[in-house]
Protein 1
Amino acid sequence: MKTDNNRRSFLKNISLATFSTLALSGCNMKEIDEYLQQNFRELTDEEKDEIVKNLGEKYKKRYGKDFHVSYKPAMEGVLFGYALDISRCIGCRKCVTACVKENNQSRDPQIQWIQVLQMEKEKGVDLAHSDVHYNPEKVPEKGYFYFPVQCQQCRNPQCVTVCPAKATWQEKDGIVVVDYNWCIGCRYCMAACPYGARHFNWGEPNIPVEEINTEVHYLGNRPRQKGVVEKCTFCVQRTREGKYPTCVEICPVGARKFGNLLDPESEVRYILDNKRVLVLKQELNTQPKFYYYFG
Amino acid sequence: MNNNCNICYINELYLKKIEGNIFLHQSIKNKLIFMKDKLIQFIKLYGILPAVVFIFLFSCSPEEKEDSHAVKEEIVEIKREKITEDYAVDPPPFTDGIFPCNDCHAFQKPNPVRRELVEWHDDISFKHDSENRWCLDCHDLKERDSLKLANGRKLDFKESYKLCGQCHGEKYRDWKVGVHGKRTGEWNGKKEYLLCVSCHNPHTPKFKKITPEIPPVRQEDIKLFIKPENTESNEN
């Protein structure tokens, strides 16, 4: 009995002490709110509005710029799909740099959502012998083809299955997103992803202030913190506004195509109907919505 | 690569660097040289005074010329709008720079004999099935401001995609639905199309190689923690 009393009083004291320190230190209540915030999918719209507003203020303080933070939900009757013409890609990596800028990826330590693999034409699609660090004077090089890999937006995403915190999920429009406030940084999803499409913030992300993109989405390109996983979201901040993803817009050879898989008139559906299409690692039953084709 | 032609202010293809920051389209440069030569000849023949009078008269004509240009612009505008309904195609980037071809060709006798061009347009390198084809397979012999289809029908430069589509039918079909070539804009709304010749030089359609962006950092080169100075000095 006596020990119980002791423990109870200890707990009482410690909680008192915590709250009093918090109160005394004048700790920002918003930060506590953010810390205690629910999973994004359980928030009401009012709560989301409040959170988004606070985030905007936080970013304004940190970067000195006005941010537009959106949490726009998926459109009805839309399932996003992507198609990439491997016979056309020249490996210029313009998509990589455009993606880094658009999605506020850390420059140092470096995080890049798109990896362009150089493969030998003789060997075909051979991931094991591909090279991501190729650096010739000019591309394309003779005898090689280029195979950009990013999140394949699987219909059966294993990264989502393994997440112990339910911090990542597939949205109605098929985009797999991460709640950076809910991610605990266990990196199970990275181990589960067969495409190496998820990236971990091992250090505090570093983005030059003048290059920061202020048009952000809560589940997409808003600035991340150390210790969370991030990934390609088909530029959710753009595509839910009707625009093409930035990699599609930058590609100088028009190898990248994007659209609504449920719309029979869309570009991706035309490709699925008329071209020779393959998905990466089909045998794993991840069922990607990212298709490679020969145009 | 943000260089504009110093005369027609059109960016991009077929620019020749003249001196320092001066860029011109080759055909404009040719035209200037041509005019200069004519002027020198004139001075040699008739002396300087008539030349001055000639220049004076010549410098008065632009007003008139501008008028005719405006009429042409109007016609072009209407045509462009019509195409906009079809495919929202911007005019090719070079048209205004070398247009109208009749400025020179109107005074020359058309020569239908297949030959290598040495005096004029020798800057055009032609690698587009050059064994079997040459200029007049696409350009009209008499009406130089038009292209022509294989059946002889004349075609505005702004509809050049139809000409390309004669041989490249599959690509043409893909282009029409937005699968071949680059699209920007909205995936479910308004898209911006480009003409075939916006990306491919019609005379040498194969893409030139380009310099890639810098490769990603190797994993072993990513440095997260800076070593404390003490340990470094110990090592030294």
Protein 2
Amino acid sequence: MASLLFRAALFLTLVATGGFIVYIVAQNKTVYKWSYRILAAGFVFHTLFFIQRYYALGVAPVLTLKAAFSFFAWAIIGAYLVLHLKFRLMVLGSFVSPLAAFLMIISSTLPTVETSIKPIFRSAWLAVHVGTIFVGNGIFAMTFVAAIMYLIQEYQIKKKKFGTFYARLPSLETLDSVNRYSLMYGFPFLTVGMITGAIYAQCALGSYWRWDPKEVWSLVTWLFYAALLHERLAVGWRGRRAAILAIAAFLVLIFTFVGASLWLSDYHSFKHLGTQTGL
Amino acid sequence: MTRIVNIGMNHETAPVELRECLAKEPGTPDVALAGMRELACIKEGLFLSTCNRVEALFTTEDPREAKTAVISLMSRLGGISGEAFSSHIFVNEDIDAVRHIFRVASSLDSMVVGEPQILGQIKEAYARATREKTSGVILNRLMHRAFHVAKRVRSETGISDAAVSVSYAAVELAKKIFYDLSGKTVLLIGAGEMAELAARHLLNQGIGSLRVANRSFRRAVEVAQHFDASPVYFDEIGAQLLEADIVISSTGSPEFVISYPLVKGSLRKRRNRPLFIIDIAVPRDVEPRVNDLGNVYVYDIDDLKGVIQINMTQRQQEALKAERIVEEEVIKFEKWLRTLEVVPTIKSLKEKVEAIRKTELKKSLAGQGDFTFSQTRVIEKLTASIAEKIINDPILFLKEKADRPSKNTYLDIARKLFNLDSTNEQEGR
């Protein structure tokens, strides 16, 4: 049942991604509308998948790397669907949807690992900690995508070389405000995610902070985003420099998510989550 | 027979001074429409007035009289002598008028082909005509088809995708930087036709305020008055850079008016808001290095020409496609117009049959008192469907012949065969 729901979500996301790519090439609005609807349908299936898993496992289904990739993709699509309500930027889908589809494909190719559900996982703090972090990550993915789009468009206008993307991408001001807006909304989620993580650690392990590599890298990520937000709001950074920093921050975030989880981390590592050495 | 006639002048036939005469008063279209309505020879009318064209479109039974009347009405409104006026106008009739109005709506007849404003202006003119009830069957259909054609041209061709004039290209670029130009501040340095045209385009996009700087303050005041803008001193440019979002520079100065240090110094105080500088002057007014600064975009005249060069070739191909669409729709409309000519015959045929049916039914039912209500209904239905079936084929036949040259012969035969004209005469007596 669960795998069927996930497969439906994956299939719909892939179809939507194909549609979004056709849209950016052919600029056909009907294709866009349907791609958007199909993506939303995929999101519904994906959500049902998580609900089903939650009831089956009894804990938030985020304990394996496979599940984490899937959850990340879900958060990205969710953030896009919400952001769309505000900005109605059609071309954003053509960038976001492939990213989400890519993460879902990775998730589907990873082997299913049976994890032992330890009692400390049965905590609301875990769900809140992981949930808010991923919602933040999903929103930051929008910051990242908008930053890439900004750099492409800015390059074309600055260098006066108008490629195929020029007509297809929105204005610099629009992209910059997507960037700023998603940064402003993503940051509180990341912050709350880290605070609840600390509280959870205190409840479960008896200390707020254990200098685990993932914790350290999360802090680095947080500092990057805090700096970007500060420069934007207080100093008035915008445009190219803000876009570059947003991309750098997201790369650190990805490193924290994948790198630190796989190779560096101690108890946060997905390798250890299922074994005795983990949480 | 009703004819469609279109009289007007546009940027090709008349100089701007003449066009202005009719466009300057905001109430002119209403007055013109009212004047047209009073002319007995005009059945339906529409009046279009933009900064590039003034046109009257009407239907009439007597084209010659109507044309003279409309021309004298327009020259009277503009305060131009009849001769000066008539040498600068064009007149289109029937299918040419249809084609013309389709081309105008699709922006194929515009000074900047593909510019989008014209459709809105036509819609406005048509709304006025419907409000004043000067449009009827033919104009309603014609205008709706024109909107349809414009929509097709816009969605099926790339004609309005790309700008092909320097000033328009500047506006398009500004939109790619700022998206929404409303509330933006524009600084116009110097004067000149192209720069003023760019400023005009920007004003049409609803920019917040326009400031004008000139070496001669007197000239700055003059230009500012022209645009309803505010004049500033030439030495104020540095301070103005802090507020401006778009700068159009077009002075005769041999050295740079906007230097690298000047712009660099303003960036932080501007809080890095994007600055778009359009340098139309030759020799250039803006130091080229300024473009290297973050969030500053400098386009000189060659850059802008480069942009429109790409667009021009693309647009020519698209225009051909658009002309094909227009022609296709003209043919369709022509066909409809022709069916309009058989409509009166079909109508009187139907009326005659219905009259016969009613009379005969009345006669037959009068003698028989013992029919129930439902039986009467059945008989009525039966007679109606018999009558309808009998004239169905002749009607289809006439509609089919509507766009054939032999149409008049068949109409004549039909009228004689069913004795339609004598019935009318009898009724007339």
